[in-house]
């Protein structure tokens, strides 16, 4: 079931570049680098297709290098032969960035998983880029550490892809962006030597040159292939509290956020949002009941993580009492145990799935200044009238990140045309971002110019040329030479 | 009293580039852009000299633009005339990055101080780059926020310079690096249009393109001039505890750090280090007594900042008891009031000043993996024998940042030659950084290649060329075309 995005973007919009075509001697050369068993030329569907099954490429060759040196040798060969390459990490992205558009060679980083070293005093992790996020989490736990990121795809996504896409997720409000945690990167360039560079260091502070490794954070495989990572990990919290608040005023949601920052302070670890429509969808499509008896227009799932359960509970009590006594929230509940907490999180995490029962979903991932966070939902609702089954908004309110979703029974070009580029223009005019965490890839390529100075886009091309002079890395996507 | 660094680096090593010489019509043009009162051509010593009085340039023109548009117009003119420009912020740096080497025009950002806007819900500050750090702190305080950085120069340094130098300081361990907090930058480029770019956004999450604003963090004025900043600020803590621990084992310092991260967890806000020699120097040169009766080889000044005094104190009690009972520390003290806390911080903050009484100070600012953090001090001590008055180490142990200082009565070339490049090579071999927070500027220019791949240095030149095609910004320093 290949859907709209495939039809609209992959087939219609892109034209194959004049890259070389793969020939037998290339395969032989790759086999000499990574071994026969790590060159795949059959049964490539899983690699050619993104996990939403919205994008499909036609690569005939997947390479599975096991060392950074092998990645380097591959890129060197591809540079000289002018072969296009799509770097593929966990392939869990939502914008078609990690699958080929045409016949690009797929370079999978999933076997780059030899080096793993944690410095217990500094909390600095050095590892290869092919480790699964959840696996790193499991390896860190017995040492008293956690990964500073957590996201739905943790069982499949790889840490290198997390860095390359500046992955966000639910720990963002507490531990910050990838820029907060990445200290150094090993990258392989698609230049004449397949240069292997160590950018940055495994140090918290290093002002000994340009901080160019930060350019690779969120670069979506446009500049080089991340082979190794040095990053901060976080001490494991020993106490976690989850609570739910309902209110009918979005202004009060903002006030509650402010109070959470003050009263929960350093233990605040999640501040998630679900509107009433999301809860209705969860009931209708997944038979999940809302957690409060009263229905509220706006719902907040708030979490704390700390090092002392008694202290955290006292802070939470103070915060909840304040919100209820001052009528910021009209109702609220504190999870009494792990089961109750899991139920609250289940509501938030099932939202994406629940929508799919309606038929077709128009997904959006935008950032907005908080004052506009919900306005867009109302605007879109009014714009579509009864043409949509639902217009719902859930997301990471604490980070200004809204997942606005619209459902229809089947794909409707009319609805599509009412939504796009309307939404992207509206968001850009309000100082927001058309992609908060999912990135550009193929899906948002047509809109990348919105809100950007023409000069910024031309500078980006120049930046790409420095690292990837022939433009063979991940063509047709974020930056096209 | 111009000292070594001036003699060694400025005069001896650099040769004036073939930039144009300033003529009267340039001055007239600048006056038409910023007004006569904002073009200074006399009494320029304060602008030509760094605050350590180690570096002195010979500029004959200081420009004080008040808007980003004026900065843009100045850079456009300088581009077309091929006039070199040194961007100057608070001029509090320690490596001679913000003063001219020859006759570069000085572009001071100190009058860029019109826009100031704080979003109370999101805690995102948007402001011009010319605000003094301490002034921002004062403006935020009544709103319940603090700046995420704090450093000794806060009364003079400007926020734009803090970003351009990736300033560290004592809140680093808690709020992270500039990369953690900067969300977007407005920068003026030295290109044919003096292009004014908005890179990034005032949003916590934005994956709508390359994160190129991060390239300007720590770029030392090589790529463009930062005119505006969008950054996260932090909720103001309502409770602060300071404590001091002494131990004779550096391994135990590392264990204490780990325990602090676990037991103080989310409230840990400083983890500073002073060796016994530093305390001896404070006594001999400033008559400041050590805080504990027993002398310890290694001393730790630890601080917590939280939102609940009772909770914080309980955590601190638990942590201190653990360290003493388990003999990680042989002695310790918790400041009972603000006066006692101030005294502990006075010891740490006076260390730099105390050294100067000895005569000449060889200052070092390095990052090291923790296991090597103190070893360098012992190595240097043995290497110099009785040629030095003192070899001392204090710094931000929690960040791996060591300030190794050596004093002699007068500058000694023999000592200098024993120290450099020995220290830089030693640090690089151990995976450390030759500049943790002070940067490169003029002082460390000769050593910038240490530990860097040749390709990284050539890439940096290419990066500079993209933003500053004629290489007129801050020449002779971090990146020289």
Automatic annotation (TrEMBL), chains A, B:
Put simply, this protein is called D-2-hydroxyglutarate dehydrogenase, mitochondrial
Q: Name one GO cellular component term.
A: mitochondrion
What cofactor is needed? Answer: FAD
| UniProt keyword terms in alphabetical order | FAD, Flavoprotein, Oxidoreductase
Q: Quote the function comment for this protein.
A: Catalyzes the oxidation of D-2-hydroxyglutarate (D-2-HG) to alpha-ketoglutarate. Also catalyzes the oxidation of other D-2-hydroxyacids, such as D-malate (D-MAL) and D-lactate (D-LAC). Exhibits high activities towards D-2-HG and D-MAL but a very weak activity towards D-LAC.
In alphabetical order, the GO MF annotations are: (R)-2-hydroxyglutarate dehydrogenase activity; FAD binding
Q: Which organism is it from?
A: Acrobeloides nanus
First-tier enzyme category under EC: oxidoreductase
EC number, UniProt record: 1.1.99.39
What protein family does this chain belong to? Belongs to the FAD-binding oxidoreductase/transferase type 4 family.
InterPro entries in the record: FAD-bd_oxidored_4_C (IPR004113), FAD-bd_PCMH (IPR016166), FAD-bd_PCMH-like_sf (IPR036318), FAD-bd_PCMH_sub1 (IPR016167), FAD-bd_PCMH_sub2 (IPR016169), FAD-linked_Oxase-like_C (IPR016164), FAD-oxidored/transferase_4 (IPR051264), Oxid_FAD_bind_N (IPR006094)
Pfam families, sorted: FAD-oxidase_C (PF02913), FAD_binding_4 (PF01565)
Which reactions does this protein catalyse?
(R)-malate + A = oxaloacetate + AH2
Domain FAD-binding PCMH-type: where? 55-236
Superkingdom of origin: Eukaryota
């Amino acid at each position: 079931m290949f859907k709209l995005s495939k039809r609209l973007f992959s087939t219609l919009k892109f034209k194959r570049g004049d890259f070389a075509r793969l020939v037998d001697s290339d395969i032989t050369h790759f086999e000499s680098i990574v071994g026969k068993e790590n060159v795949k030329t059959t049964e490539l569907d899983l690699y050619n297709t993104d996990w939403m099954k919205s994008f499909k490429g036609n690569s005939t060759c997947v390479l599975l290098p096991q060392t950074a040196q092998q990645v380097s040798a591959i890129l060197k060969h591809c540079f000289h032969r002018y072969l296009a390459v799509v770097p593929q990490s966990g392939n869990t992205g939502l914008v078609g960035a990690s699958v080929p558009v045409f016949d690009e060679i797929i370079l999978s980083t999933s076997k780059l998983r030899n080096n793993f070293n944690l410095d217990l005093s500094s909390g600095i992790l050095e590892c290869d880029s092919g480790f699964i996020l959840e696996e790193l989490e499991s390896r860190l736990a017995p040492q008293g550490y956690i990964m500073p990121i957590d996201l739905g795809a943790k069982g499949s996504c790889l840490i290198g892809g997390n860095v390359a896409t500046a992955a966000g997720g639910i720990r963002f409000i507490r531990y910050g962006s990838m820029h907060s945690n990445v200290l150094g990167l090993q990258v392989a360039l698609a230049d004449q030597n397949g240069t292997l560079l160590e950018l940055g260091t495994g140090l918290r502070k290093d002002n000994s040159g340009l901080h160019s490794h930060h350019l690779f954070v969120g670069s979506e495989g446009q500049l080089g292939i991340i082979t190794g990572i040095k990053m901060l990990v976080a001490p494991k919290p020993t106490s976690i509290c989850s609570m739910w608040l309902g209110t009918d005023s979005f202004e009060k949601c903002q006030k509650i956020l402010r109070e959470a920052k003050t009263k929960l302070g350093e233990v605040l670890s999640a501040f998630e949002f679900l509107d009433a429509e999301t809860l209705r969808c969860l009931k209708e499509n997944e038979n999940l009941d809302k957690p409060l008896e009263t229905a509220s227009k706006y719902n907040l799932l708030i979490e704390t993580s700390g090092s002392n359960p008694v202290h955290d509970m006292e802070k939470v009590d103070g915060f909840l009492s304040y919100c209820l006594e001052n009528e910021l929230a009209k109702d609220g509940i504190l999870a009494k145990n792990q089961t109750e907490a899991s139920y609250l999180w289940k509501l938030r995490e099932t939202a994406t799935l629940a929508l799919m029962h309606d038929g077709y979903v128009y997904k959006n991932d935008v950032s907005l200044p908080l004052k506009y966070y919900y306005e867009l939902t109302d605007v879109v609702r009014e714009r579509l009238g009864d043409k949509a089954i639902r217009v719902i908004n859930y997301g990471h309110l604490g980070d200004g990140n809204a997942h606005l979703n619209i459902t229809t029974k089947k794909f409707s070009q009319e609805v599509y045309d009412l939504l796009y580029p309307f939404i992207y223009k509206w968001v850009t005019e309000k100082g927001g971002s058309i992609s908060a965490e999912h990135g550009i890839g193929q899906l948002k390529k047509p809109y990348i110019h919105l809100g950007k100075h023409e000069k910024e886009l031309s500078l980006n091309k120049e930046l790409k040329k420095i690292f990837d002079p022939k433009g063979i890395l991940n063509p047709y996507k974020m930056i096209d030479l």
